[in-house]
UniProtKB/TrEMBL annotation:
<protein>
    <submittedName>
        <fullName>Nitrate reductase</fullName>
    </submittedName>
</protein>
<dbReference type="GO" id="GO:0016990">
    <property type="term" value="F:arginine deiminase activity"/>
</dbReference>
<dbReference type="GO" id="GO:0019546">
    <property type="term" value="P:L-arginine deiminase pathway"/>
</dbReference>
<dbReference type="Pfam" id="PF19420">
    <property type="entry name" value="DDAH_eukar"/>
</dbReference>
Length: 315
């Protein structure tokens, strides 16, 4: 009878980093900027959930007015087609709760990182529960979920904004509390982010993307009367050109700062904002416009509707 000698454990841990393994095991999912060439986005086409909004309840959901469903879907489809025309893969959250009309504003559900998605926990109760279906969509696509905001924290994805691979703006206010922001910061620092620019979002504003946005590698567009000096100074110190959007109707009503960069120096923005558009074009930014008049009834626009899943790194 042959004697079997047990020689101990022969399995050893693989020491390759998660980021190195990610393309091989998960796919191409990456984001470390607001302007790198856009490759993949996650969206929610307005569905039957927006039909619950009426003249009697729109304020409960923080809307201006009920949307015409067909018009809202048409405007959403036109934006998705612009993305596709520029080589972007448009993925959808296919199912959603019937009582969550704000679900079309997907940016608030996901903050994307170089290693996967942070699934958010919204600041207002009228939106909580949307993230379950976002997580399902991310799982179906194979996007790693590196964190879900939990405990006493809340954080909307639009309260975070990439500046470069080592620098992120994190805003706190009505849609992101200290606990939620700290959870996001912890994950980012684990991925090599060394600089956090803190932004106290003023009372009466929800997110960063109504106040500041990035149009090119070193060009920021902002609402000068509501962005803290210390935030602007840190951008200037990093060599940024600052474009000041000052037309109040364009900023507050037509969401002129709520744009998405398709690549460095090329953006898609809400139509009907000639002053902001001309300032960006004068700075060398290529501008594509699309009608958002119906979507804006929900106090959101292009950046709000778009969760980035993959952008090329910026060299």
């Amino acid at each position: 009878m042959t004697k079997v000698t047990i020689q101990g454990e022969r399995w050893f841990p693989a020491e390759e980093s998660f980021s190195d393994e990610l393309p091989k095991l998960w796919g191409d999912w990456y984001c470390d900027s607001e302007t790198g060439k856009l490759r993949d986005v996650l969206m929610r086409r307005p569905g039957k959930e927006i039909e619950i909004i009426s003249e009697n309840n729109y304020s409960i959901y923080r809307w201006k007015a009920p949307m015409n469903v067909a018009k809202a879907q048409k405007q959403h489809d036109e934006l998705a087609n612009i993305y596709r025309q520029h080589g972007v893969n448009v993925h959808y959250v296919e199912t959603q709760r019937d009582d969550r009309p704000n679900a079309l504003f997907m940016r608030d559900q996901v903050f994307m990182t170089p290693e996967g998605a942070i699934v958010c926990r919204n600041g207002i109760s009228a939106r909580r529960g949307e993230e379950r279906f976002t997580a399902e969509a991310l799982g179906r696509l194979g996007v790693p979920i590196v964190k879900t905001i939990n405990g006493d924290g809340w954080f909307d994805g639009a309260c975070g904004m990439w500046i470069d691979r080592e620098t992120v703006i994190i805003g706190t206010g009505a849609r992101a509390n200290k606990n939620g922001a700290e959870q996001v910061e912890s994950e980012l620092r684990n991925m090599g982010v060394s600089h956090i620019i803190r932004f106290e979002i003023p009372y009466g504003h929800a997110h960063l993307d109504g106040l500041i946005n990035i149009a090119d590698k070193k060009t920021a567009v902002l609402f000068p009367w509501q962005v803290p000096y210390d935030v602007v100074k840190q951008l200037i110190d990093r060599g940024f050109t600052i474009i000041e959007a000052t037309d109040l109707e364009e900023i507050k009503v037509k969401a002129s700062i709520n744009f998405v960069a398709l690549e460095p120096g090329k953006i898609v923005m809400p139509a009907g904002c000639p002053d902001t558009k001309s300032k960006m074009e004068a700075a060398g930014i290529t501008v594509i416009e699309t009608d958002m008049s119906e979507i804006l009834k929900g106090w959101g626009a292009i950046h709000c509707m778009t969760a980035f899943l993959n952008r090329d790194p910026i060299n």
